[in-house]
Amino acid sequence: MAVIHASGYPLETVINPTGAGDSFAGGFFGFLDQHRTRNVTYDLLRCAAVYGSVMASFTIEDFGNERLRSLNHGRDRDPDARLQTDDALRLAAGAGSAGRTAGCGLT
Predict the structure, then answer these.
(1) Which of 41, 51, 92, 103 might form a disulfide with 27, Cβ 3.0–4.6 angstroms?
(2) What one-character-per-residue DSSP string does the chain give?
(3) Is this structure's pTM higher than 0.70?
């Protein structure tokens, strides 16, 4: 059995951590739903954890769901842009698994 470690996405400002777990779960399971496969692999679960972490990072930047509601309305960085950052790539690579970002949509 493998252990998947994905740190929280680094932020300069945290306004309210309430709901971060729910947003992580939504990003995690949403990623799995979009990448349905009969074989659940380590890499698939690792990528889902990174997506969950990035979605949770948006939630804690504001109160309630305000930050999530604003994602498609021209704010600084939407989820796709945040997933392309070096921080997300480091999350996806994980400790000791450099180069394992293929298949996550993190290019």
Answers:
(1) 51
(2) ------PPPP-S--S--TTHHHHHHHHHHHHHHHT--SS--HHHHHHHHHHHHHHHHHHTTSSTTHHHHTTTTT-S--HHHHHTSHHHHHHHH-TT-TTTTTTTT--
(3) yes
